Hints:
- With 211 residues, the protein is of the alpha+beta class.
- The chain has helices spanning 2-30, 33-44, 99-110, 151-157, 185-188; strands at residues 56-62, 71-76, 82-83, 92-93, 119-124, 130-135, 141-144, 165-173, 180-183, 203-208.
- The strands form three sheets. A five-stranded mixed sheet has the order 7-6-10-8-9. A three-stranded antiparallel sheet has the order 2-1-5, covered by helices on one side.
- The longest helix has 29 residues, at 2-30.
- 19% of the residues are buried.
- The model is unreliable at 1-43 (pLDDT under 50).
Amino acid sequence: MTIMKVVSGIGKHLGIVGAVCLAVMALAGCQSPSAATRTNALAKLDPAEVLQVGESVLIDFEDLPTGTGSQVFNRQIKADGSLSPLMENHVFYAAGKTRTQLEDEIRKFYVPDYYQRLTVTVRPQGDTRVFYVGGEVRTPGAQKYIPGVTVSKAIESAGGFTQFANKKKVKLIRADGKHILTVNCNKVLVDPTLDPEVFPGDKIYVRRRFW
């Protein structure tokens, strides 16, 4: 009996040691150089560099075969976050990516199946990172886009409502002109989830109230 107790005790001890070792290994894995590098890269990413729905970009195709020259495509990121550099033959999802990430993705798709060599450059087309606020606000017009801006914040950036504003039926018109939302800004004060995010090219229109 004594021997069995000793063996049992050793087994329990080894089990505890094994568990501790596994925990240490797991923690070490979480702090691996590759994971730490990815975490640091995400932390350093500037939200202003991330492409957004409604933003217009110029996509340059360079280093093409002799005689072809370079090609420049003017594209707007659609409501679903996509764009197609060459007509509609392939869709790339751009929203949420940086220009560098999109450049790499496009180049890898077209080389070497379509081109032997290709340099892709994605650049903004003018000052397209703006949205528009009109109607019953104090300073209507174009406003500089800031990532994370919502309808209520956009109205604040335009000086706020006038005394004649209909706060219950604010229109948010997406950049494609096809998607329109109606926002009740009175309810937004109680429930922030009813305050939709605004993207470049969007238009906000505050109607006049009648009483």
